[in-house]
Design a protein that fits this description.
This protein is an alpha/beta fold. It is built from 19 helices and 10 strands. A hairpin with a 4-residue loop joins β1 and β2 (15-19). The two termini are 18 Å apart.
């Protein structure tokens, strides 16, 4: 069925897919807004690796075991495909909680006894709590001779798929409704006590571990003013590479008539500057939105008594960027996830002037991501942002497709 809706463009070693109903609008695109992670920056060995290393750091300290990378890739993909888990801290926290439901019943009982102890209740430091649980649980797991079975892996993947359609704030309620065993429901509650409340760096165990591993000790100290407790040396951010370059942007400029570029991302500005350096200057200053902009807008809303979530898929950042690029006929937003596509759909409900281009080459599960974009009716699907100039040229020249 999808072949009837899309025209295929043959690239060097891959294909681009153009929605037939969107070709006329794509030909009129004169503004481009980019997501950062997975679009402008390859984060497969940084942000996505930081999720896996954070989860495995916690799971290994508690059990002495590591979760296989293939399973973690699948869990991350399942959570993100629903479009409600854009924040990698939330993904790390959720997988860390869900992984505890896979441990044996005897280990769960030991875990509950430790957390119910008077000593644990009076221990408020997240690291001290982790150490206390680690001492009792790791030995118990070792004696049992446990490993995550194929059946448990399938169950975790299924559960991640179920909760992916909820927001992070409500995932535990949905998970509770999906877990049949009472001990699993308890483990989710006990898991929160180990990991400490989800929240800010320095207070929350998961977010602190994640940022230390991602940033490395020097940059972590520079941004947060804290010394690392869980990591030593460089961060995974040093593995990042920029996907686009000035030549690509110059080609795109010639096709849309001007350098009308913006960035709408949930990435912190400091991490973006660290990787992109002066290439960031190629994007209009008034057409950039990062994590800090979202946080500030939410803070202002709270001062007025409003509690709102402006992170993706909320279209706040996209619309903010678009204002800095006006006037334009159509703005093409390039993203690598379902929440990006959903954000464009929500923005079009306010003003129908946005198109979505999904890129998939830098995703954990490339073929699945490409298929999902097709199923969801993305206007344009590309392996990488580097193919955009070639594809836009074909569309704007009105040439026949392969």
């Amino acid at each position: 069925m999808w072949k009837e809706n899309y025209t295929i463009i043959q690239l060097n070693n891959n294909h681009a897919f153009v929605k037939k109903d969107s070709i006329e609008k794509l030909a009129k695109v004169d503004a481009i807004i980019f997501d950062c992670d997975g679009v402008l920056i390859d984060v497969t060995k940084s942000y996505l690796m930081a999720i896996k290393e954070t989860v495995n750091y916690i799971f290994n300290r508690l059990t002495g075991l590591r979760i296989e990378e293939k399973l973690l890739d699948n869990l991350i993909y399942q959570l993100k495909k629903g479009g409600r888990f854009n924040n990698d801290w939330a993904v790390s926290y959720t997988i860390s909680l869900l992984a505890l439901t896979a441990i044996p019943k005897e280990a769960k009982e030991q875990l509950k006894r430790t957390i119910d102890s008077e000593l644990f209740k009076f221990t408020n430091e997240p690291l001290d709590r982790l150490i206390m649980v680690e001492k009792c649980l790791k030995e118990k797991i070792k004696n049992i001779g446990f490993k995550i079975s194929e059946e448990s892996s399938k169950r975790l993947i299924e559960l991640a798929g179920i909760v992916s359609s909820s927001s992070f704030k409500s995932f535990e309620e949905l998970a509770t409704n999906s877990l049949a065993m009472e001990d699993d429901l308890e483990i989710l509650r006990y898991g929160r006590d180990i990991l400490s409340p989800y929240g800010s760096v320095g207070d929350s165990l998961v977010t602190t571990i994640f940022e230390e591993k991602f940033l490395g000790c020097n940059l972590f100290k520079e941004i947060y003013g804290l010394d690392c407790k869980f990591h030593k040396g460089k961060g995974l951010i040093d593995n990042e590479r920029i996907i686009i370059d000035r030549e690509n942007l110059k080609e795109i400029s010639s096709l849309i008539g001007k350098s009308n570029f913006g960035i709408a991302s949930g990435r912190p500005i400091a991490a973006t500057k660290y990787t992109m350096k002066d290439l960031l200057n190629e994007f209009r200053p008034e057409a950039k939105a990062f994590l800090e902009d979202i946080d500030e807008a939410e803070r202002r809303a709270r001062e007025k008594g409003e509690i709102i979530d402006l992170s993706k898929p909320n279209p706040y950042s996209l619309i903010k960027c678009a204002r800095g690029l006006m006037p334009f006929n159509f703005a093409l937003y390039l993203g690598d996830s379902m929440e990006d596509l959903m954000m464009v759909e929500l923005a079009n409900e306010i003003k129908a002037c946005y198109l979505f281009g999904g890129v998939y080459a830098h995703s954990l599960m490339k073929n699945e991501q490409k298929t999902d974009f097709i199923k969801k009716g993305a206007d344009l699907i590309l392996p990488s942002v580097r193919e955009l100039p070639s594809v836009l040229k074909i569309i704007k020249e009105g040439r026949s497709f392969a």
